[in-house]
Design goal:
The protein is mainly alpha-helical and 316 residues long. It has 13 helices and no strands. Helix content is 79%, strand content 0%. Mean pLDDT is 80; it is low at 2-7.
Length: 316
């Protein structure tokens, strides 16, 4: 009888505990449901904005790229892409844009990393040096372009300085030298932002690892290559992608400096697209935009693969 009573008490206790657990699960489930609703409410404006301003327009652009015109909507498959690719202005714009990106993006990444490492070390006049490169971030682009026009005008300050050393005048903005001016402008405008990102990443590297490397008599280039670069891999990827995107957006500066039809060496992809839009040729404009997007996705995909291969071993 005692055994039965004990078993009965144990059974009742187990039932009560089960009921309490079920009630707790229900409370947690309700709390999670409320949390998901609140999260969805906060996320919905952003999701809606992405859909309205990015996803839907992309499909609209793709649709325009495979029809003959926006009115009849006759399907022509890849004809618009072929016509765009055969266009001499498009080929020149694509070639100039790729050349500019190949030169400017690596320079922006390498120089900003070098400046960040320089500022991370012990050097005099750090604050003044930092201010010089951060100033373009606070100055409107129109003001920057005006300064550049004064500097590189045919009768501008750069030619005056060169004349002091016996050099002849150079028409910087209307000759093959125009690309050099645009690259220097791009670097000066973007180095400060990239430098801040690298400085933040350098400060997050564990100091004990660097101290161990010094105790093990590691050379500076070994510390840089095998420790710092590994920890900077994610920042390197981000800076490279942002620099690449900014190199495709350099049209703003070139347009303000040289107008719609600049010297051929600085006729960029955005010039072609802007002029095509002005001619109301939406089909070719859409085809060019799709081709540009595909190239960007491929390049960024390669960068992500490289970062996954070389940088993930230090994360954890």
């Amino acid at each position: 009888m005692k055994i039965k009573k004990f078993a009965g008490k144990q059974g009742n206790l187990w039932k009560e505990k089960s009921k309490e657990k079920n009630k707790e699960k229900k409370r947690i489930t309700k709390r999670d449901a409320r949390g998901r609703k609140v999260s969805s409410a906060f996320l919905s404006p952003s999701v809606l904005g992405v859909l309205v301003f990015f996803v839907i327009p992309f499909f609209v652009v793709f649709f325009y790229s495979v029809v003959d015109n926006p009115i009849s909507h006759q399907f022509v498959f890849l004809d618009n892409f072929r016509m765009v690719f055969q266009n001499a202005a498009f080929r020149q714009a694509a070639s100039n844009t790729m050349k500019f990106s190949v030169i400017a993006v690596p320079l922006a990444v390498v120089l900003s990393l070098g400046l960040a490492m320089l500022l991370d070390s012990k050097m005099p006049f750090k604050s003044q040096f930092r201010t010089f490169f951060l100033t373009p971030m606070m100055v409107p682009i129109a003001s920057i372009v005006l300064i550049w026009q004064v500097l590189f005008h045919y009768n501008g300050m750069v030619n005056d300085i060169m004349a002091l050393f016996g050099a002849g005048k150079v028409d910087w903005l209307k000759s093959e030298h125009a690309q050099v001016v645009i690259i220097v402008l791009f670097l000066w405008k973007n180095l400060g932002y990239n430098m801040i990102l690298f400085m933040a990443a350098l400060s997050s590297i564990p100091k004990d690892i660097l101290e161990v490397a010094v105790l093990e008599s590691a050379k500076p280039w070994q510390v840089f290559l095998f420790i710092k670069i590994r920890y900077l891999s994610s920042t390197l990827l981000f800076v490279t992608i942002m620099s690449l995107i900014n190199s495709f957006k350099v049209f703003r500066e070139i347009y303000l400096l040289t107008d719609d039809y600049p010297y051929p060496t600085v006729y960029m992809m955005q010039h072609f697209m802007n002029n095509t839009f002005g001619n109301l040729d939406y089909q070719r404009l859409s085809a060019a935009a799709i081709m540009m997007s595909i190239v960007m996705v491929i390049i960024i995909g390669i960068l992500f693969l490289a970062e996954n291969h070389f940088g993930r071993d230090v994360e954890g």
